[in-house]
Design goal:
Blueprint: E1 2-17, H1 25-29, H2 32-36, E2 39-41, E3 44-52, E4 56-65, E5 72-73, E6 80-81, E7 91-100, E8 105-110, H3 117-130, E9 138-144, H4 148-156, E10 159-168, H5 170-173, H6 183-194, E11 198-204, H7 217-230, H8 234-239, E12 240-250, E13 257-263, E14 270-277, H9 286-308
Amino acid sequence: MASTKKKLEVYTVTFITEEGSDLTFEKVLLSKTIENFVAFINKKDVSVSILEKGDIIVGIVETSRRDNVPPKKHKKAKKISKLGLTDDEGLAYGNVFLYEKERKILFYEVNKFGSYINHFLNCLIQCCGEDEKWEERFNVEVRPILQPEEYTRMMKMNYYKSLEVKFSNPNALIKEFEHKNNALAKTVELTQQLGTETFNGKFEVRSKKQGGSGLSSVTIRDIVDKAQALLSSKSGQENLQKLVVYGYAVDEDDLAERLEPIDLLADRYIKYFTLNEPRENIDLLQPQRRKKIKEVYAKSLEDFELMFGK
């Protein structure tokens, strides 16, 4: 039995529907459609199973890989041979998730062999799209949560002095933008058109003391929003390397304004749990994953009250 450390990313969920619709994210998760349908995403079969219903919903994303399956190797004979899977069988991987309905907070396990969170969300959309009885269209967006202290400082900033951005592989990143009429997408697009492999830039104005008017708060927040959306994809996580905002916030202790940095990649709200995994699994360890993610959620409630209120 091996103890394996698992990473949990934490997001806020924005559920987008047609005007007048009463459809919610939790209704989609708990629907018969999601229970019965399987999506084919990135050459993998992806489905969702619900483990617990209530004020919080706990479930697991099941990913089955049937293509490019690695072989097995005999230790002593040093012989490599195929696993012998049938056409309908595949290697199975799990990502446990927990969704709090009231504050729309989503915990999602990182498992590179399973499904990234954007694949999970695409699975929901694809399954509902394939169900002839499903009538309502929807979309889901997620944004990473910052550490409590950073979240508070971000909310208090009243003047943005500079923004540092670094990314690589613009050809891959540009594919992640649904719409390209925003500042970050245009920057990525320009980098792509120039044929460069990386971009490392700093957008800056004069300090507040020197009479500067500050960077546009609307544009800064839009860039931050779009950059955080990129982090829900494998390409975004691999290629977005730096995103730091410098701004002024009032220190409540002495009422002085201080220039402070907020690293929107390093300061994300990340949690961990440990799984006890046997050498060969006979299932996706659903009971253990369910228990562990609920324990992490319970320990995070104080932070959420600080950030979002009770």
